[in-house]
Amino acid sequence: MTQQPTPPRSLDLALRILARAPLPVLHAAGTTIGAALAHLPNRPQRVAEINLRLCFPAQDAHQRRRLLRRTLQETCKTALELAPVFKRPPEQVLRWVRQVHGQEHFDQALGEERGVLLLAPHIGCWELLNLWVAARQPLTALYRPPRQPALEPILLAGRSRNGARLLPAGPQGVRGVLRALGRREVVGILPDQEPDGSEPFAPFFGVPAKTMTLAGRIAQRSGAVPLLAFAERLPGGRGFDLHFFPAEEAVADPDPAVAAAAVNRGVEQCVRRVPAQYQWTYKRFNTQPDGTSPYPKKRRRRA
């Protein structure tokens, strides 16, 4: 049996300390730190700047600078609010949910008794969405193990506190989610990460993006109802609104390229509602069809 790596005690302690802070304080700190990052050269700023330029070409320089600043502020809020979401009792965290928009879509999907495939992009506080769903229905979620193995126990403990079952993405994980959908449960997938392997390219804000076919394959094989969802962060630390939308039927198309394009259109629909709260600091377009990348290469450290 493989021993689970132990998370750094200093990190766990920092999360516990941050978890005691009120949400408005954490969001105010994120606003301040993000504003500073917008004026200092750093990698997240550069990546977000490139992404925004690619995805919003009609905006002028002033509009993009303003969106970049807000993006970095929201990114910092995401990082800081992770502590209470992972460490406070779930019932306390769920009190931050103010409204649920489109809950009728979620309830209707459950009523069809085909299982629900929840596509949750990296918008706002996606970890809160996980807690809310798991408090109401059996939830199985696929995840990508972090690059630092010591962080995995924190991730798993934080996401599974409300009874959610976490499975690493891979053949065994796919079999697990198909069994969960066969039991008419809810399965959650983060659909907007660049996959490995020879996956197709599909437009995302008009830019070619290597896109996972996993969501489409699961939807096709299971017959589950596909939904899009995200947790919108409200200003002033007032909490969060949840949003649920029906996904296109083409998500389950047998043509992988058609299904991938449908997934990206759904993600884009969500992002356009709260563009500053999307994870623009992620290298979404790192692999292009011609083998190039729009992002600067990492500089190698001198020996």
TrEMBL record:
Say where the protein is mainly found: membrane
Domain of life assignment: Bacteria
Record-linked Pfam families? Lip_A_acyltrans
Sorted alphabetically, the Gene Ontology cellular component annotations on this record are: plasma membrane
Q: Where in the cell is it found?
A: Cell inner membrane
Q: Transmembrane segments in this chain: where?
A: none
Named from the GO MF annotations, one term is:
acyltransferase activity
GO biological process terms, semicolon-separated:
glycolipid biosynthetic process
Keywords carried by this UniProt record: Acyltransferase, Cell inner membrane, Cell membrane, Membrane, Transferase
| Name used for this protein in its record | Lipid A biosynthesis acyltransferase
Recall the taxonomic lineage recorded for the source organism.
Bacteria, Pseudomonadati, Pseudomonadota, Gammaproteobacteria, Chromatiales
